Amino acid sequence: MSHLSTGSEPVEEADAGHLPGPLAGVRVLDLSRIVAAPFATMALGELGADVLKVERSGGGDDSRTWGPPFVDGESAYFLSINRNKRGVAWDLGTKEGRRKARRSPHRPRTRPSRSARLPGQGRMSVRQVHVSASAWSADLGALRASLAAAAPHCDSIHFDIMDNHFVPELLFGPDILATVKPHVPVPFQAHMMIENPERCVARYAPVVDTFLFHPATCADWSGIKQKVRGLGRSVGLALLLGSGCAGNAATTGACALPGQP
Length: 261
Description:
By secondary structure, the chain is of the alpha/beta class. The protein has eight helices and 13 strands. The protein has helices at residues 36-46, 76-80, 95-103, 143-150, 174-180, 201-204, 221-230, 246-252, and strands at residues 27-30, 50-55, 70-71, 74-75, 85-89, 115-117, 123-125, 132-134, 156-163, 170-171, 188-193, 210-213, 234-237. The strands form four sheets. Strands 8, 9, 10, 11, 12 and 13 form a six-stranded mixed sheet that branches. The chain has a three-stranded parallel sheet with strand order 1-2-5, with helices on one face. Strand 8 (132-134), helix 4 (143-150) and strand 9 form a beta-alpha-beta unit. The N and C termini lie far apart (43 Å).
């Protein structure tokens, strides 16, 4: 998607012949931004769903400005995770914006059931799904208030710990987590996107409940597991789909769900 409607006119119905697939006829209201959730809703669109992406007025999704590269003035990064969507600009901070969202034909009309049946599997309780809200999507200027507001709606808070080496960003030191921890009544999950992560475990352990590590940065996975568990914390692997690392989870038997030892 590149065109962003102001939302002053009705959003036209999607062409019924557009991208037929297993989700044809399904409508998705995409209120997400940046990376993870837009990627997920893009996948739904590629399976045939009619996805309406809502962006803030005056600029749209933050990732529209990320680049280079740009293609005809549009961020290639933004375009790569927002294919097969239509877009509108609604200010959800206003009554009018919220009214449009509530009246959108893409808004969910039913509550999810307490259990769901997956193809070829038995029934699965929704409590088996762990929802971890990303602190990276919070208002960093009001981090404590943002995380406290998210806590009633999730099972844990997810922090991407970045060192400006393994990944280019530098974010979320242990002092920041210690400042907000007393005000957020759900567990903290640390995604250790850093080189030599074992050197930082002891510093983060007082304010983190679960550690997630990348196989590529763990020279001594057994030693890291032992160290984390010795500090009374849960430990698991963060796997990049399609990277061939999924086999590590099977061979190490080391992955734990958040909150499990």
